[in-house]
Amino acid sequence: MARAGALLAVLALTACTAEAAREPDPVPATAVVPSVDYYKKWANGPNPAGDPSVFPINVWMQDPSGVENGEKLGRAYPKIGIDVGIGLWEDEWWYLRQEGLHETDWRVYVDGTRVDAVLADTAHARNYVGYLIADEPDMNKVYGDVFHPDMQPSAILKASDAVRAKDPSRPTYLNFSPWMGTPTGEVGYGHIEKSYEEDMRTYCSAADIASADYYGWTHPDRGDTVGAYSYGEVIDTMRKWCGPDKPLYGFVETGHPHTHGETISPDQLESAVWNTVLHGATGINYFAHSFHTDGSGEYSSVLTRPEITARVTAVNARLKSLARVLNAPTAPGMTAVSDNGIPVSALYKETGGERWVLAQTDGTRQHPRSLAAKVTVTVPVSSGTATVVDEGRTVPIVDGKVVDDFGPYQVHVYRF
After folding, report:
1. E strands of 206-343, at which residues?
2. pLDDT tens digits for 255-265?
């Protein structure tokens, strides 16, 4: 477990860099959402049929054989809507985690060094959905004064290509740090192999599916700039490096991910999840580890904090109920603006003969905390009625506009 513990400790570190001012333009909504057809290329991947009713929900580095509340994690997580674990890590206890995986019938991305073991385990092929190639290579390429050649962009791409060649039936997964995932990621970036921009694109080319961790609500050095907006900002930033077609998963903490800083609340967690989705995240990855100033830690906070367990269960259920909508192409023809200048993150979708708008009152780096607002959504329909999904009410469409009240970070879903 020493290697795993070291890896988890690295996850607690994020960038402490100067924040450059950037005012995002929330209107019109243009978040890119790649097609689920992308997944069809992997017969043993997370969604071989490219089923649009599947919205991937994952958790980071969990042992299926571990136990919380008297139940093995590989059984507990699916009960709250978390279908896949990212990272079945490599050490001397691998075989126990593999036995737990078999016993619970959970599904995971495994360490990229375990391709041979996966290919040999044909009886449990469905349980291995892909390979985790590396975690935070963009940060660990130069850590302190130590240069790591195996974490350089070209080395990561070479390692990923070797895994792809050996098992083309499963995708590669990489998680990155704020060096890739934030607008100021170039500040403090280590050894440059070619250029910062080309390094980021090379890193992302190694990933068939990618994410980046930046815990905006709980970061100890954020001061007055904390807010849900930073989670969507990660997706926007990564989209520059990874292109329009690659699935990008939102990374959201469920506990206390730093030795200092804050513990995320249920409301903050929900706001962060939706902010990533409304900026084009095609899945969610929960980070359940907590670290404390006294050196203690626990790694399944999504299960050990009852208020978080309940909220995560509800959020996951809503995401899955809207999967076909979220996976539909983003359509043009809609804008959203508030009456008090608070940005609005929004998506307009057309699927199954219906139109949908998903909107959330947001924030910015200059004005990070969302406020209550009256929001006007302009839609390509002149009149009628929109159903506010899951709220038991309707709102009129008048002169091509829907006008509705929002609380801070509130999400409304309209169907018409």
Report:
1. 209-212, 248-253, 283-287, 290-291, 297-298, 335-338
2. 999 999 899 99
